[in-house]
Write a structure and sequence with these properties.
- About 80% of the residues lie in helices and about 0% in strands.
- It has ten helices and no strands.
- It has two domains: about 120 residues, no CATH class; about 40 residues, no CATH class.
Length: about 170
């Protein structure tokens, strides 16, 4: 279900089905007030859909087909209930994702698949580690990034010895 929800978010964003951002809504409202055709918004969506490459449209159709009609309705309803700021954040994330090269997009998909496969305890540990990382001072994070980079550059046998030594010296979690 989560995988399908993520796929549907991409479809919704690609088709512009999320409610418009406040700025866009104000512009459309002004256009309607000036007597423009109320179907102009739908026409804009159709034009954007047609402007997509055929492969992209096919991919979006496949993603949409994975969701049952009731799931699509529920997702559309949940998205409409989000505050405009969160809707915009979703649009921005989708745009960033689309701007990535295909290899990086696939890497992200793989990572999300790994996250979905974690059990709740593992997810909780991951979240706790993430919070610990974010709470570190920037200088400490940079120091650790450098150490991690140096570790990755070591030959596999040496890396294994360093990791084993570090694990032996690390106290057990409380």
């Amino acid at each position: 279900m989560r995988r399908l929800a993520c796929a549907w978010l991409l479809v919704i964003a690609a088709l512009g089905a999320l409610p418009p951002s406040p700025a866009r809504a104000a512009g459309e409202g002004a256009a309607r007030a000036q007597g423009s055709d109320p179907q102009a918004v739908g026409q804009d969506r159709r034009e954007r859909w047609r402007s997509l490459p055929p492969e992209r449209r096919a991919e979006l159709r496949r993603q949409r087909a994975r969701l049952a009609p009731e799931e699509r309705r529920q997702l559309r309803q949940r998205l409409a209930e989000l505050p405009p700021e969160q809707q915009q954040q979703l649009r921005d994330r989708v745009a960033r994702f689309r701007s990535l090269p295909p290899a990086e997009q696939q890497q992200l998909r793989d990572r999300f698949a790994e996250l979905r496969s974690l059990d709740p305890e593992q997810r909780a540990r991951l979240q706790a580690n993430r919070e610990r990382w974010r709470s570190l001072p920037p200088a400490e994070r940079e120091r650790l990034r450098g150490a991690w980079k140096r570790l990755r550059e070591l030959p596999p046998e040496e890396r294994q010895r360093v990791l084993e030594r570090a694990l032996a010296e690390t106290p057990a979690p409380e």
